[in-house]
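stage 2 :: seqdesign
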C-alpha cells in the first residue's frame, strides 16, 4: 500500500520526490535496479524487479556481460510499467574504505547518465546498497540525494526523479537528508 508523498522539491525543471512503495509498480520511463555484478537477478529489489518483468529480462541481462560496481547498464522493462530498467551495482559497505562512498555516488550518477543518453526523463530509484550490501541509511541517503541533485544541476535533462523507498524507516532517513540539503541549498532547492 502506497502512502502519500513524503517530500518533494524542485531542482531547476526537475521534481525530486520521495515515497514509500513498490518500485516494480512505477509508471516511469525507467526504474533503477540495485543489481549485483552478474546482472542475473538476486534478492531484494533485484529479485522483485526480475520477477515482475518476467523471464525476458533475465534473457537480456545474460547478454550484457555483467556490470562493474558504480556503473550502470540498460535493458527493456518487459512486463513492468516502466519502459526500461537501468541496472546499477552499488558497493558492499566497508566502514573505513574511502572508495565506497565514491562508488555509491557513481552508481546514481551513471544511472542518470544512461537515462539521459537514452532520452529517459522520468526515473525511479530504490535506496541502492542499503539492503543486503549493508550501507547504513544515514550515510547512504545524503550521498544518493546529493549526487542526484548535483547531476540535475549540471544536466537539467529530467522531468521527475522519484526515490521509491521500501519502508517508513528508509523514507524517514531520506526525508531527513533531503531536509538538510534543502536548508543548505535554499537558493536552488524549492520545496513543493
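stage 2 :: out
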Amino acid at each position: 500500500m502506497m502512502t502519500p508523498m513524503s517530500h518533494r522539491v524542485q531542482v531547476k525543471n526537475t521534481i525530486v520526490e520521495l515515497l514509500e512503495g513498490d518500485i516494480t509498480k512505477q509508471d516511469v520511463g525507467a526504474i533503477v535496479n540495485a543489481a549485483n555484478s552478474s546482472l542475473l537477478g538476486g534478492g531484494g529489489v533485484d529479485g522483485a524487479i526480475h520477477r515482475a518483468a518476467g523471464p525476458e529480462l533475465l534473457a537480456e541481462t545474460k547478454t550484457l556481460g555483467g556490470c562493474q560496481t558504480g556503473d550502470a547498464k540498460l535493458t527493456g522493462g518487459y512486463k513492468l510499467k516502466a519502459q526500461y530498467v537501468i541496472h546499477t551495482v552499488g558497493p558492499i559497505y566497508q566502514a573505513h574504505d574511502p572508495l565506497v562512498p565514491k562508488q555509491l555516488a557513481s552508481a546514481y550518477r551513471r544511472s542518470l547518465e544512461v537515462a539521459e543518453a537514452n532520452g529517459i526523463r522520468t526515473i525511479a530509484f530504490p535506496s541502492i546498497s542499503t539492503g543486503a550490501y549493508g550501507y547504513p541509511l544515514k550515510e547512504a541517503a545524503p550521498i544518493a540525494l546529493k549526487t542526484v541533485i548535483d547531476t540535475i544541476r549540471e544536466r537539467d535533462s529530467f522531468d521527475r526523479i522519484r526515490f521509491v523507498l521500501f519502508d517508513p524507516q528508509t523514507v524517514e532517513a531520506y526525508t531527513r537528508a533531503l531536509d538538510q540539503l534543502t536548508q543548505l541549498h535554499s537558493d536552488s532547492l524549492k520545496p513543493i
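stage 3 :: structure notes
- The CA atoms of residues 142 and 177 lie 5 Å apart.
- The helical segments are 44-53, 55-61, 99-117, 137-155, 168-184.
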